[in-house]
Structures are given as structure tokens and as C-alpha cells.
Amino acid sequence: MADIACKSEKSGVGITIKDDWPGYSLDLFSYPAHYTGDLECVYIPHGLIMDRTERLARNIMDDLGDHAIVVLCVLKGGYQFCADLVDRIKALSRNSRQTIPMRVHFIRLKSYLNDQSTEDLHIHEAEDLSFLSGKNVLIVEAIVDTGKTMKTLLKHVEAFRPKMIKVAGLLVKRASHSSACLPDYVGFEIPNRFVVGYALDYNEYFRDLNHICVISESGKMKYKI
């Protein structure tokens, strides 16, 4: 039985963004002109994401240093966070006595339609994860919303009998309907707002936005399907 990382306590929730946080004015930052009118605010600037990711990489190095791991990147929203996190772990491995040998594998989850999480979860590229047997696994996910998707994924991965499972999540939403499944490594705990950017999308738009932003109502209508 793998050591599964799914916590109910509030330890290590990362940087907490309060419910009344209005975000930063868009006028203070650069962003693609084709999203003019589609965003309310910059919620988490790119520089802050990078600093927090570096800290998470150091925490992972402290916990898992000198142990080979398989990084399981959850696509599509997690690709940017995973790439930056892996880069920072690699930098630490080059410049310290500890090192983490890493393999990276990609799986794809889809559970959203417009801005709503659906009950219909699709897992792709994960039919045969038998190579995880006996391995230390680090699942890297961009956002944990209700926790249902993460619980389903953990159950699926556990079936392949890894030695250990840890989870790194850039964002964890604070929601009344949450199943209280917290990753081991959390970048930011945020209110229950729909955010885009830094590879997080709304119907495949906004992945090309560096900052994490709050989408406007007009943006939702513009890209709704």
C-alpha cells in the first residue's frame, strides 16, 4: 500500500489569499492585448508564482533528496507549473550535495465545461502506469478545486502499487463543497474564484497568459461553448 498524500488538516496550505483580496489592477502589468476586456484583475503575478515555486522545489528537495522519483504531470493546466518546478529542482540538484534523479511522465485530465467542474472525469495516457510499481511518485497539478478529481487520480495511481505518492499543487481552492483533500506541497490557497493564466484555461483560452488572473463575466461569455 502506497503512502498516499491526501491531508485533511490545514498544515502547510501555502500562501493564503483572503476572500476579500481584490487583486492587482491590470494597468500595472503587461498582458496580451487580445485579452483586453476579458480579465478582471491580476490575482497572482508571474514573479510571485516563480518565487513560490522555488520555495516548493526546496521543500521537495529537503523531503525527497537522494531518492529517485517519477514526476507525474497532470495536463493540460499543470504543464507550466510542472516545467518550472522541475527546472528549479534540477538547479538545486546541480548546486547542492543532495540530488533527485527524476523521470517525467504526462497524463491528461478533463473535468471542466466552461467554468464548472463536472462529474464526468476523463483520464488519458494513464491506462498503463505499471512502471510506477515500487517507485516514489510526485503528482504535479496546477489546481485542486473540490478535491474529487485528485481523489480519483490518487485511487487510479495507487492501483499500480507505487512505493510512495506525494502531491504538489500550485493552487488549492477554499470551497465549502471541498472534499478537504490537500496536497503535500501547496503554492497558494485561494478563494473559490475562477482563475486563468499560467497554463490554466477557460475552454482552451488564456494558457498564453503569464500571470494568474480572474476572468471577467464578459470574458466568460466571449469564450463560452
Question: Quick recap of the structure?
Answer:
Helix content is 24%, strand content 31%.
Q: Secondary-structure element sequence?
A: EEHEHEEEHEEEEH
Strand order of the largest sheet: 1-8-7-6-3-4-5
Total number of helices: 4
Low-confidence regions: 4-11
Shape: globular
Mind describing the biggest β-sheet?
7 strands, mixed
**Terminal-residue CA separation:** 42 Å
Q: Kindly estimate the percentage of residues that lie in beta strands according to DSSP.
A: 25-35%
Rg computed from alpha carbons, rounded to a whole number of angstroms? 17 Å
- Report the count of strand segments: 10
Given the helix and strand composition, which structural class is it? Answer: alpha/beta
Write the layout of secondary structure elements.
Elements: E1 15-16, E2 39-44, H1 46-64, E3 69-75, H2 79-94, E4 102-113, E5 116-124, E6 136-144, H3 148-158, E7 164-174, E8 185-191, E9 195-196, E10 212-215, H4 217-223
Parallel strand pairs: 1-8, 3-4, 3-6, 6-7, 7-8
Antiparallel strand pairs: 2-10, 4-5, 9-10
